[in-house]
Amino acid sequence: MLRWILGAREAQGTVEKSAALFIGEEQPKNCFTEMQVLKGHFDIVRFLVQIDDLRFASAGDDGLVLIWNVETGELLLDLRGHTQQITAMTSYAYVRGGNTHTALITASSDRTLSLWDPDTGHRVQNVSDLQSSVKCLLVLDRLDTWVSGGNELCVWNKDFELQCKTVHHSDTGISAMVELPKNFIAAAMDREIVIFKLNVSGSDIAVMAMRHLTDHQDTIRSLINVNDGLFASGSHIGELILWDSLNWTIQAYEHILWEESAGEGQSEVKLTNQKQIERSIQHMSSDGELLVAAVGSGLYVYNVALKSVVAYRRLAHDSNVLHTMLQEDGHLMSCSADGSVRMWELLDLPLPAEPASSGLFGMFGTFSRSSKQVCPPTKKLPEVSSLRSLELTGDLIGHSGAVQMFVSFKEKGLVTCSTDHLLIVWRDGELQSQLRSLALFHKLEQNQGL
Amino acid sequence: MIGSPDVVAFTKEDDFGELFSDPLSLPEEFSVPLFNHAAHANPWTKTSYAKFSKDFILISEFSEQVGPQPLLTIPSDPKVCGTFDLNYFSLRIMSVDYQASFVGHPPGSNYPKLNFVEDSKVVLGDSKEGAFAYVHHLTLYDLEARGFVRPFCMAYISADERKIMQQFQEMSSQFSKASECLKMGNRKAFANELEKKLKDLEYTRSVLHKEAELQKTNSGCYSTQAIEKANELANVEKSIYEHKDLLRQITSYPSRKRKDMDFVQCEMEKATEISAVDDTLTCNSDNAVKSVETESDNRKSTYTPQFIKAKSAKCFDKRLKTLEELCETNFFHQTLEQLNLVEKSFRGDLSFIYTSQINRALLTKQRVTSFLFEAESDWIDETSKNFKVSSNTPPIPILNLSGELMNLESYTTSVDVDHIKQSGESSEVPAESSTSDITQETSEAADTETKGSFSSEKSIETFGSVSPSNLQSNYFEGLERSKVSTTSSYEDQKVGKMSPHRTSEGSPAEVFGNGHLVPMDSACCIGQDGFIYEEPTPEIAQECCGDTVVNQEPLSLLHGDPVLQMDYILEDSTLLGSPNKGLMFSELNTSVLSEEAARINIEDVSDSTSYMSTSTSSDRAASPFTYGSVLTLRQKKKAGHNALRFIRQYPFAHQAIFCLLSGRTLVILGSDEGTVRKLVNALLIYVPNLGKYGETVQPWLSTPFQLTDLQRWKLIGLQRAFSPAGSSILHSLNRYSRYISILDCDNKTLRCPPYKGILINHMADHRTQIKRGSTYFLHVQSLLTQLTAKAFLYTFCHHIHLPMDMNDQGSVTSRRTNFLLQLGCTVEESKIVQYLSELIKTHCIQGHLKGVNKSFFSFDYTTSYLYKI
């Protein structure tokens, strides 16, 4: 690339060397041609939460919660109170006076939980001296309560009163939770998924553990709801399990191995050394039909209904993929520790299946463990034909550290947060230009001309 | 009887005159009058028969002891006046004082009455001496003078009559400011003097009283002595009463005056006077005017009243106060400063002054786009606006030339007509006067006579339309209505209640505001240099104010946000001691004008390196531009020279320029700082929206740059270092390579997107015949102006930007593209125009907010190529 700059010196950019794929500078499908850098944090920014169409909150290791306007990039509020890093943040919609308000719940390592009003910046509620710091938060809208997960699971009502809690589980604590039908909650604790039941009787709520699902061989890294009937969990060693939401049985089991092809020669050694890290399922997202898993530095798209692989990229990024998102019509986005956000498109492979891809599929270590009870693989379509390719359509380079997560505001843009303490809003330059034109004419109208 | 040809002529004019006007031609007020070749073969020979080498300002006094006498000239260099007889000329100009400045005991009044007379403004000519003068008469009060008044006049003397005539209004306003300053100081001094005198009188009264008592007790009867004493006492009593009345009059001056003056500026000054005078006299405890107060307090406390003898000395025995004593020293010096500026601003040939005025007037009409490539013109107004809002201090009077120029023509014509009517015997009528033939009678008779003079006051009588108020209202037409109204409403409020920030009230600096003064070197008009560095841009207008201040204050301090700066000074000024006052306020002015302050050094045309020695804005020979300092036009022209070298040297100059124009950040990478800075300096002139301090350019950066830097800077000089830091710099270059173009000046390579258009080929033809940097700069400017015009059109054409319906993004895009094609833009040029358009839009939308002028950063995904020499 820029080796000419370096003159005789060797290009030391590891980015270049190990680049899995490089799209180049010509990216006609990439509409993000405008960026705005938002400065405000002093440490790694880990969480982004959308408040409404216009606002979002960011939080991270500096304990600050900042509220921004996505259109202008203006810092609206600065919520200070936590003394240590924020460990979890979620938005919490509640009804007051007929209007729905959105509040923010934050949890921090200083063992406090706070409720913030993003309109005023007030810390409405605060709970301190918890027994352990909270790692995840889950709002149960139906019950108008919310659940915090740390070493124990606590259920809170809207007034920040502790309703009930479980006994101390383990020191690893709850890393992720999803809400299941019929007031059940699935919580990931190390290698187990524990199903809790919330018993609601009048205003009292009791919680009890119903079942421990111990099918994962390693630590569970991500846990998401796929649709009404399914939830999914992914583990550190690449196990992806689809569960039935009602009876908590395994619907599908994939073990993603990312095996090396024989032809890759020397690099195999290096990559097999890293295998453990590379297979970890860091993040999953789903639109109910497709499920995207960030597996190591690769991406894996799985069709939930067909229980088959749709597409995959073993080396989608140069480093671990940290967050993914499925968009409409087969577009997806991923961000990674390599500092980039990449945009992908699911494309049908040309009909004559390329030998390369079929070969790749062969080495792809996917196997369905015949499910114990339910759902024998009914529609077993020839997998080759269902396989699509994941084409890179563009990448966003801006952050100098790992991109922790992103939130999309549709046409208003995409917000990314990163280890480099920055947030970046990416916008569609053409659209912004048109909006500015409109704003200009509006202003001219107001001012009666120039 | 009207002959038929006349009738035809009239009908033609009435019916078709307007129809035939060429829409493309400049409005009449902007057209430069052609030089009359028939009358004078050489335009520069005009001054030759005058006895002085260049224009100067003369201050004269009509002394009650010695009659008219010259006091001082500006410039004070005696060479300027040469053999010109100042005494004689003083006599001439002082003898035409039309002021009816009657002071004394008016009939029907028992007490002396002060007359607050308007200054009179007169144009005088002396064809024998070859001198023409704008003469500004004013009266100052002096308790010891006859009738309490001392007539003075300030005259601008020039050999060029047209200059006086055409610039009459501008001169009038500038001299009015100076006069206002003098008078303000004089009123204060006069009030002080009165107070002292009152004290003396009271003391005298008490002494006399005691003596009378003593005599009464001693003799017990009324001796003649006692009667004398009683008379004396009565006289003193009367005198006290009179003086008190005078004091009351001088104190109540503004309220009396307000009624008959209606123009804004005057009100402004009055408002300041009110407070100033009030405060001095009534000792209002207001911290803002503390300095003034303490001054007078001190004087009061230290002043020991003296006994006044019944018969005071005859006026011829005593020494008259000097002008400096008449006005307070601060005010006096401030006035001199102002007059110096006036002198500077009217230097040079009329055509040059006129052209630069037109230029400025035109530029002020282009505020929407002028920020792109022109040096920003409106920020002065803007800061003064901010100034008003933020610190509640009296607004600086803003003189907008556009309005003035509009009625300049009409004014001068009426002046001419007046001239002719007034002086029946006048012979030589100005050549440009169209009506001259009609009234001309005898040509020889008036040879030695005053060639024709008229007073503005008389003309007011004759022509209602030329009255000061009318002039003024026309004058301000160029200003936005809103501004005028805010100013005046502000004044009302100001007068109504005293605001806490009254720091600068009563300060001499105040009076001057920042009118557009155009100091220039007359040499540049002669054209011996072939090129004029003092390009007529609005900035030059302000050069003056920094004149002395530059040396007093490190410029770096002034570079901050002007508003902040002012606040800072304002806060400071609450504790200022009296001697520093003037200085502080001149700084206050300068902080507004810090841009010009830097430019002041650059006035000298001939010596291209002169500014380096004095300049605060440059310390390096390689690059006159350093980050954070004010970017001057002069520097830009120097940059033109470098740019010329650049385009000759580098075949890929087109691509580099294209990058800059299309908003792609250009990084100039090199290990030698001098080379890099030079290149940055060369490319400076192509950077749109450069900012007044060149904020969008970073000439030398030795740390790895970050994403936010790309947002801020469009042209970066980057150090190539072979060290860990260097590698991280390269890493960042590598990482952001898609957003930047890199010009490696060590290897002479450029990596950037391709450019295939022709526009930049015109702009940067390496075979160009242009030799001079400044010429090249203007060449580039003209092309950039064309681009700007396109961008303006593109931005403000409604139909191409408004969507037909909600989901219409695509059609808008295609309409835009088509429009650009119609404008004759190639793909690349479209990019430039679009970028400029975006800049215009954000500039318009965000207004003049500082700091956030461009918070986002746009780019596009295109392939870059590597170009080599």
TrEMBL record, chain A:
InterPro entries: WD40/YVTN_repeat-like_dom_sf, WD40_PAC1, WD40_repeat_CS, WD40_repeat_dom_sf, WD40_rpt, WDR41
Protein name, UniProt field: WD repeat-containing protein 41
Superkingdom in the source lineage: Eukaryota
Any Pfam family: Beta-prop_WDR41
Keyword annotations of the record: Repeat, WD repeat
Species per Swiss-Prot/TrEMBL record: Triplophysa tibetana
UniProt WD repeat ranges: 38-78, 79-126
One GO cellular component term noted in the UniProt record for this chain: lysosomal membrane
A biological-process GO annotation: regulation of autophagy
Keyword Glycoprotein annotated: no
UniProtKB/TrEMBL annotation, chain B:
GO cellular component term, pick one: guanyl-nucleotide exchange factor complex
Location within or outside the cell: Cytoplasm
Top-level taxon in the UniProt lineage: Eukaryota
InterPro entries: FLCN/SMCR8_DENN, Folliculin/SMCR8_longin
Domain UDENN FLCN/SMCR8-type: 47-841
Alphabetical list of Pfam families matching this protein: Folliculin (PF11704)
GO-annotated molecular function: GTPase activator activity; guanyl-nucleotide exchange factor activity
Region named Disordered: 422-466, 486-507
Keywords of the record: Autophagy, Cytoplasm, Guanine-nucleotide releasing factor
GO biological process: autophagy
Record field: compositional bias (Polar residues): 432-466
Assigned protein family: Belongs to the SMCR8 family.
Full protein name: Guanine nucleotide exchange protein smcr8a
Organism: Triplophysa tibetana
